[in-house]
């Protein structure tokens, strides 16, 4: 079932000297409990789409159809944890800002921390956690306000390769366990393939949608295991060649 539709989205940036068309005629949808990745050349406007979805940027034209007023949770590239707050207080920050820090919501966050391997670190500080654990904390902080749709902007870019693999599994499992839908912006084709139900490929700026791939591979399970599927390399080569033409 479609829960979000983007129809002919256009974004123009205005400078004193010119207009820059960043996005042109972008149309796609997101289904319930689906993960969609957006990939494309550097500077093509991937992050701009997320900013338009959340209202951080005003769209220039087009429609964003969210009939049920579903809430977004936005996870940035950097975990942005405050070093002077312990892990629990970092995770409660959004609830405090929204004036929704009830006993029930606090218990919900504590349960998430316990459920996803952070039970022993609730009162630790960010500097005592690995990069992968910090990303898990950042995701739980995002989940604390109970969003319906999760938006990820290059969420693993600051991690080393081994950590990226491990954290992608963590994030994938949390998304599915919590019954969320997600849109992931990434430069990493393998990451997109391993985590997504569909992949949207953008052209260089002014960005349009070149292709949308429905990812269907034999014995799909977790991101790490999905990289071993026999169809993985075929998808990878097709998408890489398509992006490479625009680089």
Summarize the structure.
The protein has helices at residues 46-54, 87-97, 103-115, 131-143, 161-177, 189-195, 223-226, 232-244, and strands at residues 2-14, 19-31, 35-39, 61-65, 72-75, 149-153, 181-185, 198-202, 209-214.
Structure in words:
The protein is an alpha/beta fold and 247 residues long. It has two domains: 165 residues, P-loop containing nucleotide triphosphate hydrolases (Rossmann fold), CATH 3.40.50; 69 residues, no CATH class. The chain has eight helices and nine strands. The strands form two sheets. The chain has a six-stranded mixed sheet with strand order 5-6-7-3-8-9, sandwiched between helices. α2 runs antiparallel to α3, α2 runs parallel beside α4 and α6 packs across α8. The longest helix is centred in the last third of the chain and has 17 residues. The radius of gyration is 18 Å and the shape is globular. The protein starts with a strand and ends with a helix. The mean pLDDT is 92.
What is the strand and helix layout of this fold?
Blueprint: E1 2-14, E2 19-31, E3 35-39, H1 46-54, E4 61-65, E5 72-75, H2 87-97, H3 103-115, H4 131-143, E6 149-153, H5 161-177, E7 181-185, H6 189-195, E8 198-202, E9 209-214, H7 223-226, H8 232-244
Parallel strand pairs: 3-7, 3-8, 5-6, 6-7
Antiparallel strand pairs: 1-2, 1-4, 8-9
């Amino acid at each position: 079932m479609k829960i979000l539709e983007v129809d002919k989205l256009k974004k123009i940036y205005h400078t004193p000297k010119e207009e820059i068309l960043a996005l042109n005629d972008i149309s796609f949808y997101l289904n319930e409990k689906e993960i969609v990745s957006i990939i494309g050349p550097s500077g093509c406007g991937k992050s701009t789409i997320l900013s338009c979805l959340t209202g951080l940027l005003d769209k220039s034209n087009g429609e964003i159809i969210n009939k049920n007023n579903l809430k977004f949770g936005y996870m940035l590239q950097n975990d942005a944890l405050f070093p002077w707050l312990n892990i629990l207080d970092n995770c409660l920050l959004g609830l405090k800002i929204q004036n929704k820090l009830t006993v029930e919501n606090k218990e919900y966050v504590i349960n998430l921390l316990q459920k996803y391997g952070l039970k022993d670190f609730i009162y630790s500080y960010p500097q005592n956690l690995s990069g992968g654990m910090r990303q898990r904390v950042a995701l739980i902080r995002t989940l604390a306000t109970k969003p319906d749709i999760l938006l990820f902007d290059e969420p693993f870019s600051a991690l080393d390769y081994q950590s990226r693999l491990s954290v992608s599994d963590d994030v994938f499992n949390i998304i599915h366990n919590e019954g969320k839908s997600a849109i992931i912006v990434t430069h990493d084709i393998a990451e997109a393939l391993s985590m997504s139900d569909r992949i949207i490929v953008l052209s260089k700026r002014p960005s349009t949608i070149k292709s949308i791939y429905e990812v269907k591979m034999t014995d799909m399970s977790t991101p790490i295991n999905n990289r071993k599927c026999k169809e993985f390399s075929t998808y990878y080569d097709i998408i890489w060649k398509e992006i490479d033409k625009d680089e």
